[in-house]
Amino acid sequence: MATTTQNEPSEAGAKPGQPPADSAKLSALLALAHKLSRVGDPKRAIELGMMALDLAQAHNDAIAHAQAVEVVADAQLAVGAYADALARHLEALSLWRALENVHGQVRCLRGIATVDLYVGDYARARGRFEEALALLRTQHDAALEAGVLHGLGMVYARLGELAKASEFHELSLSRRRELDDQAGVAASLNSLGVLCLRVGELRRAAGPESMAAEFHRARTYFAEAEQLAANVGDLQLQALALGNVGNAVAFLGDVEQAMELFERQLETVQAIGDRHNVALCLANMGEALRLCGRPEAAIEPLQRALAIGEEIDSNPRIMRAHQELSACREAQGDMKAALGHFKKYHELDLALRSEEVDAKARDLLVQIAVRKVREEAESYRAERDRLAEANVQLSEAANVDALTGLANRRYLDANLDRMFAALRLSQHTLSMALADIDHFKLINDRFSHAVGDEVLRAVGKILRAACRPSDLAVRYGGEEFVLALPDTTLEHARAACQRLRAAVAGHPWHLIQEGMQVTISIGVTSDAAFDDAAGMLANADRQLYEAKRAGRNCVR
Question: Which of 205, 525, 533, 543 could be joined to 416 by an S-S link, Cβ 3.0–4.6 Å?
Answer without folding.
Answer: 533
